[in-house]
Write a structure and sequence with these properties.
Strands 2-3-1-4-5 form a five-stranded parallel β-sheet, with helices on both faces. The protein is about 60% helix and about 15% strand. It has helices at about 15-25, 30-40, 45-50, 65-70, 75-100, 135-145, 150-155, 160-170, 180-195, and strands at about 1-5, 25-30, 105-110, 125-130, 170-175. It is α/β, with parallel strands linked by helices. It contains nine helices and five strands; from the N terminus they run βαβααααββαααβα.
Length: about 200
Protein backbone atom coordinates (compact mmCIF):
# COMPACT_ATOMS: atom_id res chain seq x y z
CA UNK A 1 0.00 0.00 0.00
CA UNK A 2 1.26 3.48 -0.92
CA UNK A 3 -0.01 6.36 1.23
CA UNK A 4 0.08 9.97 0.07
CA UNK A 5 -0.48 12.70 2.65
CA UNK A 6 -2.11 15.89 1.40
CA UNK A 7 -1.90 18.96 3.62
CA UNK A 8 -2.15 22.74 3.45
CA UNK A 9 -4.23 25.54 4.88
CA UNK A 10 -7.97 25.96 4.46
CA UNK A 11 -8.95 27.17 0.99
CA UNK A 12 -5.64 26.16 -0.59
CA UNK A 13 -7.11 23.39 -2.75
CA UNK A 14 -6.46 20.13 -0.89
CA UNK A 15 -9.85 18.71 -1.87
CA UNK A 16 -9.09 19.23 -5.56
CA UNK A 17 -5.74 17.46 -5.18
CA UNK A 18 -7.43 14.55 -3.39
CA UNK A 19 -10.11 14.35 -6.09
CA UNK A 20 -7.34 14.01 -8.68
CA UNK A 21 -5.88 11.10 -6.71
CA UNK A 22 -9.31 9.47 -6.49
CA UNK A 23 -9.57 9.73 -10.27
CA UNK A 24 -6.33 7.73 -10.37
CA UNK A 25 -7.84 5.03 -8.17
CA UNK A 26 -6.93 6.18 -4.66
CA UNK A 27 -9.13 5.67 -1.61
CA UNK A 28 -9.37 8.96 0.29
CA UNK A 29 -9.56 9.66 4.00
CA UNK A 30 -10.65 13.20 4.90
CA UNK A 31 -9.54 13.92 8.48
CA UNK A 32 -11.88 16.92 8.78
CA UNK A 33 -14.86 14.80 7.74
CA UNK A 34 -13.82 12.04 10.15
CA UNK A 35 -13.50 14.62 12.94
CA UNK A 36 -17.07 15.80 12.31
CA UNK A 37 -18.33 12.21 12.32
CA UNK A 38 -16.61 11.60 15.66
CA UNK A 39 -18.03 14.88 16.98
CA UNK A 40 -21.44 13.25 16.63
CA UNK A 41 -20.85 9.68 17.76
CA UNK A 42 -17.65 9.34 19.81
CA UNK A 43 -18.74 9.74 23.43
CA UNK A 44 -15.19 9.89 24.82
CA UNK A 45 -14.13 12.69 22.48
CA UNK A 46 -17.36 14.62 23.08
CA UNK A 47 -16.89 14.33 26.84
CA UNK A 48 -13.29 15.53 26.67
CA UNK A 49 -14.18 18.53 24.51
CA UNK A 50 -17.10 19.44 26.77
CA UNK A 51 -14.86 19.30 29.84
CA UNK A 52 -12.30 21.64 28.29
CA UNK A 53 -14.57 24.10 26.46
CA UNK A 54 -17.31 25.22 28.83
CA UNK A 55 -20.89 25.59 27.58
CA UNK A 56 -20.29 23.97 24.17
CA UNK A 57 -22.29 20.85 25.04
CA UNK A 58 -25.23 21.99 27.21
CA UNK A 59 -27.35 18.94 26.30
CA UNK A 60 -24.57 16.41 25.89
CA UNK A 61 -24.22 17.27 22.19
CA UNK A 62 -21.53 19.59 20.87
CA UNK A 63 -22.81 22.95 19.67
CA UNK A 64 -20.61 23.08 16.57
CA UNK A 65 -21.26 26.73 15.84
CA UNK A 66 -20.28 27.79 19.34
CA UNK A 67 -17.17 25.59 19.29
CA UNK A 68 -16.17 26.98 15.89
CA UNK A 69 -16.57 30.55 17.09
CA UNK A 70 -14.22 29.82 19.99
CA UNK A 71 -11.45 28.02 18.11
CA UNK A 72 -11.41 30.11 14.93
CA UNK A 73 -11.09 33.34 16.90
CA UNK A 74 -8.19 32.13 19.03
CA UNK A 75 -5.20 30.12 17.79
CA UNK A 76 -4.46 28.76 21.28
CA UNK A 77 -8.00 27.37 21.59
CA UNK A 78 -7.67 25.74 18.18
CA UNK A 79 -4.41 24.15 19.32
CA UNK A 80 -6.09 22.86 22.48
CA UNK A 81 -8.96 21.38 20.47
CA UNK A 82 -6.47 19.68 18.16
CA UNK A 83 -4.62 18.17 21.13
CA UNK A 84 -7.87 16.56 22.24
CA UNK A 85 -9.13 15.38 18.87
CA UNK A 86 -5.97 14.22 17.07
CA UNK A 87 -5.70 10.94 18.97
CA UNK A 88 -9.32 10.00 18.20
CA UNK A 89 -8.97 10.90 14.53
CA UNK A 90 -5.66 8.99 14.35
CA UNK A 91 -7.25 5.85 15.80
CA UNK A 92 -10.02 6.03 13.22
CA UNK A 93 -7.55 6.61 10.38
CA UNK A 94 -5.56 3.56 11.54
CA UNK A 95 -8.72 1.46 11.58
CA UNK A 96 -9.73 2.52 8.07
CA UNK A 97 -6.23 2.11 6.62
CA UNK A 98 -6.09 -1.42 8.07
CA UNK A 99 -9.47 -2.18 6.48
CA UNK A 100 -8.24 -0.87 3.11
CA UNK A 101 -5.14 -3.06 3.40
CA UNK A 102 -7.32 -6.11 4.06
CA UNK A 103 -9.31 -5.22 0.93
CA UNK A 104 -6.13 -5.09 -1.17
CA UNK A 105 -6.22 -1.32 -1.74
CA UNK A 106 -2.92 -0.14 -3.20
CA UNK A 107 -3.21 3.67 -3.03
CA UNK A 108 -4.56 5.82 -0.18
CA UNK A 109 -4.72 9.60 0.23
CA UNK A 110 -4.92 11.13 3.71
CA UNK A 111 -6.24 14.70 3.59
CA UNK A 112 -5.48 16.73 6.73
CA UNK A 113 -4.71 20.35 7.55
CA UNK A 114 -2.80 19.19 10.66
CA UNK A 115 -1.17 16.17 9.01
CA UNK A 116 2.29 17.07 10.33
CA UNK A 117 1.30 18.36 13.77
CA UNK A 118 -0.82 15.27 14.46
CA UNK A 119 1.96 12.87 13.44
CA UNK A 120 -0.13 11.41 10.61
CA UNK A 121 2.68 12.32 8.21
CA UNK A 122 4.73 9.45 9.65
CA UNK A 123 2.24 6.98 8.15
CA UNK A 124 2.72 8.44 4.68
CA UNK A 125 5.20 7.42 2.01
CA UNK A 126 5.19 11.01 0.77
CA UNK A 127 3.69 14.29 2.03
CA UNK A 128 2.49 16.94 -0.40
CA UNK A 129 1.63 20.49 0.65
CA UNK A 130 -0.89 22.53 -1.31
CA UNK A 131 -0.40 26.29 -1.15
CA UNK A 132 -2.20 29.21 -2.77
CA UNK A 133 -2.18 33.02 -2.73
CA UNK A 134 -4.01 34.38 0.32
CA UNK A 135 -6.57 36.33 -1.70
CA UNK A 136 -7.51 33.20 -3.66
CA UNK A 137 -7.94 31.31 -0.39
CA UNK A 138 -10.11 34.07 1.09
CA UNK A 139 -12.43 34.07 -1.93
CA UNK A 140 -12.71 30.26 -1.94
CA UNK A 141 -13.54 30.13 1.78
CA UNK A 142 -16.12 32.92 1.44
CA UNK A 143 -17.83 31.08 -1.43
CA UNK A 144 -17.54 27.60 0.09
CA UNK A 145 -18.57 28.37 3.66
CA UNK A 146 -20.68 31.50 3.20
CA UNK A 147 -18.36 33.54 5.44
CA UNK A 148 -17.45 37.21 5.49
CA UNK A 149 -13.97 38.28 4.38
CA UNK A 150 -13.12 39.01 8.02
CA UNK A 151 -14.11 35.50 9.15
CA UNK A 152 -12.29 33.88 6.21
CA UNK A 153 -9.10 35.76 7.15
CA UNK A 154 -9.60 34.75 10.78
CA UNK A 155 -9.60 31.08 9.78
CA UNK A 156 -6.49 31.48 7.66
CA UNK A 157 -4.63 33.35 10.41
CA UNK A 158 -5.53 30.71 13.02
CA UNK A 159 -3.63 28.09 11.00
CA UNK A 160 0.00 27.50 10.13
CA UNK A 161 1.60 29.91 7.63
CA UNK A 162 2.60 28.81 4.14
CA UNK A 163 6.25 28.60 5.24
CA UNK A 164 5.34 25.76 7.63
CA UNK A 165 4.13 23.56 4.76
CA UNK A 166 7.13 24.44 2.61
CA UNK A 167 9.44 23.42 5.46
CA UNK A 168 7.63 20.18 6.41
CA UNK A 169 6.42 18.62 3.15
CA UNK A 170 8.29 16.52 0.61
CA UNK A 171 6.72 18.36 -2.33
CA UNK A 172 4.67 21.53 -2.81
CA UNK A 173 1.83 22.04 -5.27
CA UNK A 174 1.19 25.71 -6.11
CA UNK A 175 -2.50 26.39 -6.69
CA UNK A 176 -2.63 29.66 -8.59
CA UNK A 177 -5.03 28.28 -11.22
CA UNK A 178 -8.73 27.83 -11.75
CA UNK A 179 -10.20 24.72 -10.14
CA UNK A 180 -10.36 22.86 -13.46
CA UNK A 181 -6.80 23.84 -14.39
CA UNK A 182 -5.48 22.82 -10.98
CA UNK A 183 -7.27 19.46 -11.14
CA UNK A 184 -5.69 18.73 -14.54
CA UNK A 185 -2.29 19.78 -13.20
CA UNK A 186 -2.70 17.51 -10.17
CA UNK A 187 -3.63 14.51 -12.29
CA UNK A 188 -0.50 14.98 -14.41
CA UNK A 189 1.66 15.56 -11.36
CA UNK A 190 0.41 12.49 -9.49
CA UNK A 191 0.73 10.25 -12.55
CA UNK A 192 4.37 11.29 -12.84
CA UNK A 193 4.98 10.97 -9.10
CA UNK A 194 3.50 7.48 -8.91
CA UNK A 195 5.41 6.28 -11.98
CA UNK A 196 8.68 7.55 -10.49
CA UNK A 197 7.95 6.18 -7.02
CA UNK A 198 7.00 2.82 -8.53
CA UNK A 199 10.35 2.39 -10.25
Amino acid sequence: MYIIGITGGTGAGKSTAVKALQMLGAKALDCDLIYHELLSDNADMISEIAAHFKDVAPNGEIDRRKLSEIVWSDADSLQELNKITHKYVEDEIDRRVAAFKDQGVKLVAIDAIALVESGQNKKCNVVIGVVAPQESRVLRIMERDGLTRENALMRINAQKPESFFRDNCDYILENDHTKAEFEDRCIGYFRELLSVEGE
